[in-house]
Amino acid sequence: MQQFEDKNLDIFEELLEASGELNVRYFPRKLWGHSTELIAKASQELGYIVEPMPKFINFEKCRLCGKCVNGCLFDAKWDGTYFTDEALEYGAELIEDMNVFEILHLNSQVIGVAALNSNNEKQIFKAKKVILSAGALNTPVILKNSGIENVGNQIFFDIFTTIGGYLHDANLKNELMMGVKAEFGPYFLSPHYSMQLLPLMEKKGIKASDNDVIGLMLKFADTCIGTIDSRGHVEKTLTKVDVDLIKEGYKKAVDILLKLGVPAESVVATSLKGAHPGGTAAVGEVVDNNFESRIKGLYVCDASVIPEAPGRPPILTIVAIAKKVAKIVNQSI
User: Fold this and answer.
1) Is 323 helix (H, G, I), strand (E, B) or coil?
2) Are 299 and 290 within 8 A, CB to CB?
3) Structural domain containing residue 181
4) Cα(17)–Cα(2) distance, rounded to whole angstroms?
5) φ, ψ for residue 236, nearest 5 deg
6) Residues forming a β-bridge with 110
7) Tally of domains within the chain
8) Helical (H) or strand (E) element with 255
């Protein structure tokens, strides 16, 4: 929400709707795993405030397998196919294996989209309204192909790294990831298992199994600086502010690990990664407060319209934007 505060954009009602439909609930204490409990206790002893992470999970169905990112096998976690299935029930047509590369327009009015099918044949789909939701890395490329300027001149990633080490039988890999968090303004720390940690420990001569790995994710809101060109090539710069946040968060993560009894010589950190790219077609720059581009009838609805890094998962915000766009489009028909 705060990313839109200076844009006079109100999506509060849609956020409430999305929270209800996605069944957002805080991770209940009774389901915290062993390592999550240890990390929470160590953090609190260091004076950090620890709170449960909100999740769109039905915990009655959840088996706490720790494999959320691979797709839930137990239908406990919400995903976007819920809305797709509902749309199909209402008569929508889903066309697969189609690569849209250009928005067609005449006299600044959208008239359709151009795409390539699985046989690399060009197909035209006529439309009076188009909602582009190709993601923050693909949306700007399509907009550039469509003649829209000032696109992809900034980008954020919600950058993260996982700092971890050796703790015998931690078994964090089999717990629900990121069940709790310690907040520090522009960044937070949360229990997280990464497959990269064990090989990094082994390079340091630490003998361990994947059950002996414990880690903390450091995720921060990076400065929205960088570019993406018409071929989708990204250049990203870290500012001094970003680097200072990484150093500060890394130190806190190490302090927590040492408090747990993790040997200092076993502490390692993964490379920096981007969790949630966005900002490439921002509100106020590429689209207006109705999420409409300068091509009338063309709306953008994904993380590319978010103007600043949230430093937190943007799913609720994106769903709320989708709901807002749907209302705007319906009212204009």
Assistant:
1) helix
2) yes
3) 33-76+159-274
4) 18
5) -130, 135
6) 105
7) 2
8) helix 240-260
Q: CA-to-CA distance for 162 and 188, rounded, in angstroms? A: 12
Query: Is the domain of 211 the same as that of 255?
Result: yes
Measure the CA–CA gap between 57 and 313, rounded to whole angstroms: 14
Q: Which CATH number fits the domain that encloses residue 128? A: 3.50.50.60
84 within a domain of the structure (yes/no):
no
Per-residue confidence of the chain (333 residues) as pLDDT tens digits? 555 555 567 898 999 999 999 989 999 999 999 999 999 999 999 999 999 999 999 999 998 887 887 888 898 998 888 889 999 999 999 999 999 999 999 999 999 999 999 999 999 999 999 999 999 999 999 999 999 989 999 999 999 999 999 999 999 999 999 999 999 999 999 999 999 999 999 999 999 999 999 999 999 999 999 999 999 999 999 999 999 999 999 999 999 999 999 999 999 999 999 999 999 999 999 999 999 999 999 999 999 999 999 999 999 999 999 999 999 999 987
Q: Is residue 307 part of a domain?
A: yes
CB atoms within 10 A of CB 239: 11
Q: Determine which helix (DSSP H) or strand (DSSP E) holds 87, and give its type and residue range.
A: helix 81-89
Instruction: Kindly state whether residues 244 and 300 are assigned to the same domain.
Output: no
- Residues 62, 182: one domain? yes
User: Is residue 223 a contact partner of residue 192, using CB atoms and an 8 Å limit?
Assistant: no
Separation CA 113–CA 126 (nearest Å)? 7
Alpha carbon distances (Å) from 279 to 42, 139, 159, 301, 304: 36, 11, 14, 12, 5
Clarify whether residues 204 and 294 are in a common domain. Answer: no
